[in-house]
Request: fold
Amino acid sequence: MFKAPYRVFLFVFALLGMPGIVMASSGGGGNHIDLTSNWVGYVSLLIFVVAYGFVMAEEYTHMRKSKPVLLAAGVIWGIIGYVYASHGFTHAAEVAVRHNILEYAELFLFLLVAMTYINAMEERQVFETLRIKLVAAGFSFRKIFWVTGVLAFFISPVADNLTTALLMCAVVMAIGKDNVKFVGLSCINIVVAANAGGAFSPFGDITTLMVWQKGIVSFWTFFNLFIPSVVNWLVPAVIMSFAVPNIKPAAGESNVQLKRGAFVVIGLFLLTIVTAVSFHNFLHLPPMMGMMTGLSYLKLYGYYLKRTHKNGKNSPDYDSEKAEERVGDVLAFDVFRNIARAEWDTLMFFYGVILCVGGLGFIGYLSMTSEVMYGSWGATVANILVGLLSAIVDNIPVMFAVLTMNPEMSTGQWLLVTLTAGVGGSLLSIGSAAGVALMGQARGMYTFAGHMKWMPVIALGYIASIGVHFLINASFF
Reply:
């Protein structure tokens, strides 16, 4: 990296329109251009910041969050491509952007399947029926707040924080769709719980998985983060619970029944999660392949439901031997209708964010930040800041940069950075995949500004979890 005087020198050249560019050998065997001190880097950073500003202001501007980041991603990579092409490296930027697109494609397909299953369960009246059962059982909003939080914490280590958050949010939306305060607080609680739950499992989050696959921390050692993870969730949950209305939700309709095949759809969703985890852990294939295989389960069962569907005895195709339809089942099950109802704004937002961050990483900012943090500030401060950074930038490229640098650290410090990278994204709604997905699912009820109001208590949990880690895992330092 450049020393400070050279940075000033290059910056002056950038202002004069004379880009100072340094060539460095890349790991791929080609050439890499360091643009961190060039006008390209500064402009790209500015574009990213402005785009994120529009994302944060979505609640006030009513501009969908995908629009500014899609434009930013295209402009950033367009500038990078122009600079590389002008220096004769016609394929370097192409290879890099294809790598980012592959990363997005895996997330996109995984998330699309999860959203489709949730839409299918909603169409089969699963969540509405569950709402009626919980209301009839006398559960208040506050008790449901705790139930969904506990489930999110303990399901996410087995499934993943994204799928878990979507599922719990669907329950919350079905129960309290008319109470904005309850839905907003519950979504914050779900995001924090799901992220904390994935932090102590080797395959509960991508960042823990990266550290485990690198061979830095053994499988069972990760579970020493269980208590710090519990503290990370419990501290803000206890404080927020006092703000949750301690009233019972409205009863609503009581004659809602599950549509035919509802329990089978639930079973297929669980089987899909098992398939995704098995593909990843035992076959060493991307979890996305397991999820797409699971989508075929729903498609095939949907074919059966469609073939055996009838509208009533007056239908010309009525067959008394076919399964009886329940109340309200007027239209035949259509899996493609459920796919079409996916939250496309969220899916496009993920594309923009991954490409923007990938572009900044390709410019050299992520590796430069890692070197400064670990080289100048020390492991403890750097690892805590990694968590804060992951609230703004996706934790996957941040952890990748740390693993690439591979600083000399004790097992305790590696556990610390695993914890902070996993739970730090809870500080902002845009800091984790779970938060971004829920902003789309509970649009207008769970927002960036609403999450931001509770950031101090979430930060309190973040600090408390770090303190507990140093206290109970002192032997690893």
